[in-house]
Write a structure and sequence with these properties.
Elements (H helix, E strand, L loop, with lengths): L4 E4 L5 H12 L3 E6 L7 H6 L2 E4 L6 H12 L6 E4 L4 E3 L9 H21 L2 E8 L10 H21 L4 E8 L12 E3 L8 H14 L7 H13 L12 E4 L1 H20 L1 H4 L6
Parallel strand pairs: 1-2, 1-4, 2-3, 4-6, 5-8, 6-7, 7-9
Length: 276
């Protein structure tokens, strides 16, 4: 198989940076992108990646122009929608969806015409346990991830007949810099009634930062295996969504069991709503 060419957003650190380095190590080509100065990607360029400035919060037309420049040097086989950060805040106090949701939509829309034309390609979405179940103080973040889940489900069905594959990886807590204070955006107009919860969220972020159980290198190795149908993924059907990390597995299983219990306990009521 000839080397695949990947486009990865949010490559300057964390899962994105680790993914780029592992893609190169596996013999594929990769375009690493991030917003801001390309200096942030200089080490990845030295490692063999192509680098471009791509701000997923820009307009769709601006993102399309960047994608067009990337395509000038060759086709893209895999898009990884990785760019994002933690948006914290109480549900009544905050709302902000630009990077984690709308940025993903615009970047995917910019690459889809290319994938449709060649009737092949792979779109990867980086989800979260925050898209499976909500947590106190994470309303803005969970809102984006829940929205991504629904949009992804539609996109997957709409593009399957075009030879385009897609998958969403649900990540638990992995030891990256995403929980660093500089990367946790608190967008709130504080309401006193929520102070105990807000303080608890702050304490949790401080305690988990640098102590997350997940190893990013192990996660990205699995992501690459799934896309390339190699390693741990060889011989397995492509999953619609794949949780990574025991913590995320526990969240998904708890949610699934809870939903199943509701279906079983309320089935007679649920079925009673049709016309007689």
């Amino acid at each position: 198989m000839s080397p695949m060419r990947w486009l990865v957003t949010g490559s300057s650190s964390g899962i994105g940076e680790s993914l780029v380095r592992n893609i190169i190590a596996r013999g594929d080509k990769v375009v690493a992108t991030a917003r801001g100065d390309l200096y942030r990607l200089s080490s990845l360029k030295e490692a063999g990646a192509e680098t471009f400035t791509l701000d997923v919060t820009a307009s769709l037309s601006d993102i399309k122009m960047v994608v067009a420049k990337i395509l000038e040097s060759g086709p893209i086989d895999v898009l990884v929608n990785n760019a994002g950060y933690i948006e914290a805040g109480l549900a009544e106090e905050a709302t902000y969806f630009e990077t984690n949701f709308f940025g993903v939509i615009k970047t995917t829309q910019a690459i889809l015409p290319h994938l449709r034309e060649k009737k092949s390609g792979f779109v990867v979405f980086i989800g979260s346990s925050g898209g499976i179940a909500g947590e106190p103080g994470a309303g803005p973040y969970c809102g984006t991830k829940f929205a991504l889940e629904g949009w992804y489900d539609c996109l997957k069905q709409e593009t399957a007949h075009l030879g385009i594959k897609s998958v969403i990886f649900e990540l638990g807590f992995f030891r990256t810099k995403i929980m660093d204070p500089a990367n946790v955006k608190l967008r709130s107009e504080p309401i006193d009634d929520y102070k105990p919860i807000r303080d608890g969220v702050t304490q949790f972020v401080q305690s988990i930062n640098g102590h997350q159980p997940g190893d990013p290198k192990k996660a990205v190795s699995i992501i690459i295996d799934v896309v390339k149908d190699e390693g741990v993924a060889q011989g397995r059907p492509l999953p619609e969504r794949l949780p990574l990390g025991p913590d995320c597995l526990a969240t998904l299983r708890k949610k699934a069991v809870s939903n199943l219990n509701i279906c079983n306990e309320w089935e007679d009521v649920i079925r009673s709503t049709n016309f007689d």
